[in-house]
């Protein structure tokens, strides 16, 4: 799998996470953000690893080490471009916490290409190390997380890569808070919960083919290239069906086939703090998966076969009426259509995606099964 194809990889990992999570738990994940760390790991490989990893990534990594400056190289340029869009849209931060020795050139490359901080921790003080890591995460999550790391999940030979994502919807057209009402929401098990349901009538791009067992509503962000894609299963299908079937590479095609329609949209407000531990994903996946190769690569970088690498992604997601721009237009300012609106009621488990049309990347995905969970 190439680093230039994170969409397919993201679909597979989301499917894997959902398959072993409780179906009433929300999931949030960015494969593109994880690809920043994956690429950083591969940049640190020794020359003896070129041939093996070039086959896997379908990219030539050797020029990263033999040419100067790094930023002129193709892979470096791709990585910087991805990092910039993730920092802009998802407020991404990344860091490496490590108690051992890494090459100075590798640390410089971390910062130059990936804006990835290098933090030393004291292996003789696991409590203090956990406090340093938790404080770093909490500061970037605006205080919404506290005790992700502790002595039980740290060891004396540990390297921890962390992504943090602080995700808010930058709606081009805000919802009217006065129209938000309590309504019923159904999860995939048929359990009912009360949610705060936002309401909006407007023109949206919608993909609704009878040949698929889901429909997708695209709602604009203030950035004209960025959209939310709300993927809603049909009445006779579940969110699990959608996750098993949907390939993020097809979102571009669905967007191009979408038709502008006057829609009455109901979307629940929701928020979540989600942590994905890719050590767990590695154990669930087996040795042929991408995450296994990441861990094997880390051992080569630090030349320590006993190193324990943990890769975590922490997400703070909140979707509400105003989003990030209180100055955007609201629903009441939009001219009403003379036609009866088509209903798009998100009153059951759904996928919430953030999509960049120019890059064709799904920047972020969330499986929402319980909007009322905090």
TrEMBL record:
Pfam families per UniProt: Serpin (PF00079)
InterPro entries: Serpin_CS (IPR023795), Serpin_dom (IPR023796), Serpin_fam (IPR000215), Serpin_sf (IPR036186), Serpin_sf_1 (IPR042178), Serpin_sf_2 (IPR042185)
A GO molecular function held by the record: serine-type endopeptidase inhibitor activity
GO CC aspect terms: extracellular space
PROSITE patterns: SERPIN (PS00284)
UniProt xrefs under SMART domains: SERPIN
Domain Serpin: 11-371
UniProt-recorded name of the protein: Glia-derived nexin
């Amino acid at each position: 799998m190439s680093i230039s194809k994170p969409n397919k990889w993201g679909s597979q990992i989301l499917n894997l996470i959902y398959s072993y999570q409780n179906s009433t738990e929300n999931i949030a994940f960015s494969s593109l953000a994880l690809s920043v760390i994956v690429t950083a790991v591969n940049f640190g490989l020794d020359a003896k690893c070129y041939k093996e990893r070039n086959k896997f990534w379908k990219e030539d990594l050797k020029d990263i080490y033999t040419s100067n400056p790094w930023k002129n190289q193709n892979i470096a340029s791709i990585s910087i471009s991805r990092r910039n869009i993730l920092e802009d849209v998802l407020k991404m931060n990344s860091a490496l916490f490590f108690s051992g020795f890494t090459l100075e050139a590798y640390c410089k490359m971390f910062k130059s290409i990936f804006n990835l901080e290098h933090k030393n921790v004291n292996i003789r003080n696991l409590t203090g190390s956990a406090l340093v890591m938790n404080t770093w995460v909490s500061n970037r999550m605006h205080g919404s997380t506290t005790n992700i790391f502790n002595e039980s999940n740290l060891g004396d030979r540990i390297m921890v890569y962390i992504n943090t994502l602080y995700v808010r919807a930058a709606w081009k057209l805000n919802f009217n808070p006065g129209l938000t009402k309590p309504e019923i929401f159904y999860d995939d098990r048929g359990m009912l919960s009360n949610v705060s349901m936002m309401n909006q009538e407007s023109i949206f791009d919608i993909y609704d083919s009878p040949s698929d067992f889901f429909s997708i509503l695209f709602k604009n962000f203030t950035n004209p290239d960025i959209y939310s894609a709300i993927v809603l299963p049909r009445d006779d299908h579940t969110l699990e069906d959608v996750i098993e079937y949907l390939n993020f590479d097809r979102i571009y095609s669905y967007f191009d086939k979408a038709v502008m329609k006057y829609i009455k949209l109901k979307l629940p407000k929701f928020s979540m703090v989600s942590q994905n531990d890719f050590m767990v994903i590695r154990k669930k996946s087996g040795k042929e998966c991408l995450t296994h190769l990441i861990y094997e690569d880390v051992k080569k970088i630090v030349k320590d076969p006993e190193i324990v690498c943990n890769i975590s992604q922490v997400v703070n997601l909140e979707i509400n009426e105003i989003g990030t721009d209180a100055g955007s237009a609201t629903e009441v300012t939009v001219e009403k259509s003379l036609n009866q609106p088509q209903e798009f009621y998100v009153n059951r488990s759904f996928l919430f995606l953030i999509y960049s049309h120019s890059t064709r990347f799904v920047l972020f995905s969330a499986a929402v099964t319980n909007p009322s969970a905090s």
